[in-house]
Amino acid sequence: MTRPRKAIVLLSGGLDSATCLAIARDRGFQAVALSFRYGQRHQVELAAAERVAKAMGADSHRVVDIDLRAFGGSALTADIAVPKNRPDSEMAAGIPVTYVPARNTIFLSFALALAEVEEAGDIFIGVNAIDYSGYPDCRPAYVEAFQRMANLATRAAVEQGRRLSIHTPLITLSKAEIIRTGLALGVDYGLTISCYDPSPGGIPCGGCDSCRLRQKGFAEAGLADPALVG
Description:
Layout: E1 6-10, H1 15-26, E2 30-37, H2 45-55, E3 60-65, H3 88-91, H4 103-118, E4 122-124, H5 140-153, H6 155-158, E5 165-167, H7 175-184, H8 209-220
Parallel strand pairs: 1-2, 1-4, 2-3, 4-5
Helix pairs in contact: 1-7, 7-8
């Protein structure tokens, strides 16, 4: 019997990464979910990641501690206010203060190390270049460059010929398209949280860029956000 291929899936607990996990499972991958406690102000997302990993049938779920507060430089890892209720034109212009320096590079580097140990040839990451907040590490050119580097940097690739593929199935989808895709695959978005500045009890602020983009996606899909119902 052929063993299913194994993939590392970066899982934040938000809408996009939950959809990404569902896609990996639908494509037949045995998913190892990987989350990070990196000093983010919205650590409630880790409880959401655990819920999603269980609900979507991840084979295992690892949480790695790395404290990016040591560097700061972001509203998510330093004492900097999270922008609220910005107009769409402002959200579409420039890189916001919620950008965490080198975050996806750091996360993908950990995923690469885990992939080599787990003998996984695939990594899934829910980056998006359409409905996003201008982060430079969400663009196709960045992901392609990291994949090239990864296949120069590991024993698995250099000595064993086991090349790594980085999958970005959401990269050209609108938020509404992502939601429709996830719902078709059975994602319960009521388990997820997307907010950058939630209450200690995990209530979304409703005004940060991430909340606004989520609201826009559900509105354009003609659906109510289950995380806000009830």
